[in-house]
Design goal:
The chain has 16 helices and no strands. The chain has a domain of about 180 residues: MetI-like (MetI-like fold, Orthogonal Bundle), CATH 1.10.3720.10. With about 325 residues, the protein is mainly alpha-helical. Helix 5 packs across helix 10, helix 6 crosses helix 10 and helix 15 runs antiparallel to helix 16. The longest helix is centred in the last third of the chain and has 28 residues. GO terms for molecular function: ATP binding. It is a multi-pass membrane protein.
């Protein structure tokens, strides 16, 4: 008779939940990754979150020589004065008009260019075109505005050429009625190529077998574009659109300041330049801070509302 001396097998508990690690254990496990993230976290804390404390100026009659603590508290008086200021509403109107033009004309441009670049067969040609269209993003607005001035300004190349052939277009860069379209055209020329990067990455992530299955079913390139490519990048489009809505009241400070004298404040004044000229130049710190605070709160509310709307339509949005 053989007697088994083996120890009884440990009972396995099916469906047992794994033991949750403590915060100390997780910090000990991930300390290297946390150390790598520390410089980025410090950057945002020092330059983005700590300055938020300065928004208390919006509720005070702030004077630099008195300091924040020494300046008298005025409550909502700065907000009331701001809403009664006609120049503020002019800036709001110009900002919304430029934003609408950028959403209508600029936002689809990177998507269309990414689809066009994805259709190129040769990788060498594709890389060459990508390099060329990325370059304008790295030019400063000073250079971009100067280039537009040299091309379509009063003495620009195209203006001079057309004038020599008895076609007068005037100085397009100094026309207040065309300023908003010109500003949008400058943004399209400068940033469309750079904006294609994330869309090209999203297109690359689409499973190739979906294109193959669509081709086997007889779908031409238009059908594959409509039923495979666009649905594949739709979450990215929705996410970027939500983020753009949150930034709806920011249309470019440098670009507007550089062209303000040429077209006048009536046509080019936006919220950012209004804050600069009334706060930094004229010293009205309280009302300018109130304008900036309102701008931030409206942007946050738009992001929250757009994200909720995306969830209702079954999209992921930017957070759950």
């Amino acid at each position: 008779m053989v007697v088994s001396t083996a120890a009884p097998a440990a009972e396995v508990q099916v469906g047992a939940r794994p033991q949750r690690r403590t915060l100390r254990d997780r910090l000990k496990r991930d300390w290297t990754l946390l150390l790598l993230c520390l410089p980025g976290v410090l950057y945002f804390v020092v330059f983005f979150y700590v300055p938020l404390l300065g928004n208390v100026i919006a509720f005070k009659d702030y004077a630099p020589f008195l300091g924040i603590e020494g300046s008298p508290w005025v409550g909502l008086e700065n907000f009331v004065m701001l809403l009664e200021e006609p120049e503020f509403w002019t800036a709001v109107g110009n900002t919304l008009q430029i934003t609408a033009l950028q959403l209508l004309l600029y936002f689809p441009a990177p998507i269309a260019l990414a689809l066009l670049l994805n259709s190129l067969v040769g990788n060498r040609v594709k890389r060459l075109v990508q390099t060329v269209v990325y370059l304008p993003h790295f030019l400063s607005w000073v250079v971009v505005v100067a280039m537009f001035q040299q091309v379509i300004g009063g003495a620009g190349t195209i203006t001079t050429f057309l004038a020599a052939h008895d076609v007068t277009i005037g100085n397009l860069m100094a026309d207040p009625g065309l300023f908003k379209l010109m500003a949008t055209a400058q943004v399209i020329w400068k940033d469309t190529g750079w904006g294609t990067i994330i869309f090209l990455a999203a297109i690359t992530a689409i499973d190739v077998s979906q294109y193959e299955a669509a081709a086997i079913d007889g779908a031409d390139w238009k059908r594959r574009l409509w039923h495979v490519t666009l649905p594949g990048i739709r979450p990215v489009i929705i996410m970027l659109l939500i983020l753009r809505l949150g930034d709806i009241l920011s249309v470019g400070f440098e670009q507007m300041v550089l062209q303000r004298d040429a077209v006048g404040a009536e046509a080019s004044e936006v919220i950012d330049t209004y804050i600069y000229y009334h706060g930094v130049i004229n010293g009205d710190w309280g009302m300018s801070t109130a304008a900036g605070l309102m701008k931030g709160l409206i942007g946050a509310a738009l992001i929250y509302a757009a994200n909720k709307l995306a969830h209702r339509f079954g999209e992921q949005g930017i957070y759950r």
